């Protein structure tokens, strides 16, 4: 039986006093690739922020990688985030550090101390996103697609149980978006579980998978068949 990594029951999500989503019921299993689709500004980021502890869950039941979102304390949040990989639209790389130093910073911040283990882990995740030769470069020396590949590598560092990708192709041109999607598809095939928020319907047509649609303060599951090769 597949392991549940995310379950929401009768959840409402708020941004301040405004209700963004209501009556969300959703379950995600280990190995799934799920889209959260909706227009820009429709609450997808608020949904994601609730999952990684940036917004408090005050209504309904939510469990993510063995953490209860309703009873989540502030000092639990760093431990929750160590079990998640988070990919943002705007990359969020440190501009004054090389790629290797960006990744090393994250590992050291999450408790890694052995220099050899750190180097090996960095090499491994860069290889997964086909960026093994770019470790010495600074973010401004990379294209947008390359920066997002590094952001995906960063999300993989601590072998997360779930990757939350919030509009990972939002700042990229169509061809680069496809390249980044190919990376995400590949790491999903290798066993990583991914929830991806997007407003790009073209990606869903090209890479069909289980889809949640955000509309009128509700989230509906849209059944799509996997593309056959």
Automatic annotation (TrEMBL):
Parts of the chain that traverse the membrane: none
Q: ABC transporter domain location, by residue?
A: 6-227
| Described purpose of this protein according to its UniProt entry | Part of the ABC transporter FtsEX involved in cellular division. Important for assembly or stability of the septal ring.
The protein here is known as: Cell division ATP-binding protein FtsE
InterPro entries recorded: AAA+_ATPase, ABC_transporter-like_ATP-bd, ABC_transporter-like_CS, ABC_transpr_LolD-like, P-loop_NTPase
Which keywords does this Swiss-Prot/TrEMBL entry list? ATP-binding, Nucleotide-binding
SUPFAM superfamilies for this protein = P-loop containing nucleoside triphosphate hydrolases
CC annotations in GO: plasma membrane
Pfam families for the chain: ABC_tran (PF00005)
* Example GO molecular function: ATP hydrolysis activity
Say which family it is in. Belongs to the ABC transporter superfamily.
Q: Could you tell me the superkingdom of the organism this chain comes from?
A: Bacteria
Question: Which organism's genome codes for this protein?
Answer: Aquaticitalea lipolytica
């Amino acid at each position: 039986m597949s392991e549940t990594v995310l379950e929401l029951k009768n959840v409402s999500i708020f941004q301040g006093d405004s209700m963004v989503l209501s009556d969300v019921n959703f379950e995600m299993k280990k190995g799934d690739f799920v889209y959260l689709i909706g227009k820009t500004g429709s609450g997808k980021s608020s949904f994601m922020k609730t999952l990684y502890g940036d917004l408090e869950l005050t209504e309904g039941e939510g469990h993510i990688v063995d953490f209860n979102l309703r009873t989540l304390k502030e000092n639990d949040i760093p431990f929750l985030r160590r079990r998640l990989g988070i990919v943002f639209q705007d990359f969020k790389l440190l501009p004054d550090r090389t790629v290797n130093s960006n990744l090393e910073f994250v590992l050291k911040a999450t408790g890694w101390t052995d220099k050899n283990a750190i180097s090996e882990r960095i090499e491994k995740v860069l290889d997964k996103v086909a960026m093994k030769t770019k470790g010495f470069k600074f973010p401004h020396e990379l294209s947008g697609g390359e920066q997002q590949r590094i952001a995906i590598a960063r999300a993989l560092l601590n072998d997360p149980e779930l990757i939350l990708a919030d509009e990972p192709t939002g700042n990229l041109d169509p061809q680069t978006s496809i390249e980044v999607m190919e990376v995400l598809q590949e790491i999903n095939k290798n066993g990583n579980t991914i929830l991806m928020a997007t407003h790009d319907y073209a990606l869903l047509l090209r890479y069909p998978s289980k889809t949640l649609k955000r509309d009128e303060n509700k989230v509906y599951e849209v059944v799509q068949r996997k593309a056959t090769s």
